[in-house]
Amino acid sequence: MNDAVSEAARCCKPTALELLSYTYQDTRFLTNFQDIWTSCYNYSTLTLVFMQEISATIHGNVQAVGFRAYTKKQADDLGLVGWVRNVGDASVECVAQGTEEKLETFVGHLESGPYFAEVENAVIDWHDRPQDACSQFEIIHD
Question: Which domain holds residue 9?
Fold first, then answer.
């Protein structure tokens, strides 16, 4: 166990902020973060504190114009997780999880779309907590 992990483990119920500061100081701490957090608190609580989720339906000329690939690239660049897929009514549906700030930036990308897309309307629903756990951002091919 590295020094940062040992120091955090000795603390009596470290705060999420303290644990995250150790995380940024020593990236090896990431592998042990969940174990320490779980032993002190309910780990899912931490997820709720830092992560939010949006579900979006984008209408317009958004299929066959690279919208899904564009959405994945924007999500990957922002470090978001979730998925995007075409819907039978010619819209695109998307779920993304991350911090509020990054999701706000992502929504801007969804509302503008790639060069050849014509977004008429983007319906965005915000959720205070992720509905399902995602580990990466993926394109769902139906």
Answer: 3-49
Angle (CA) 113 142 129, round 5°: 65
Assess whether 42 carries a catalytic annotation.
Answer: no
Q: Among this protein's residues, is 86 annotated catalytic?
A: yes
Distance of CA 1 to the CA centre of its chain: 29
Q: What is the pTM of this model?
A: 0.67
Looking at residue 82, its amino acid is G
pLDDT tens per residue across span 81-135: 999 999 999 999 999 999 899 999 999 999 999 999 999 999 999 998 788 888 8
33 shares a domain with 63: no
* Catalytic option among 68, 85, 121, 129: 68
Q: Rounded distance, CA 45 to CA 88, Å?
A: 36
108: CB partners within 8 A, 6+ apart: none
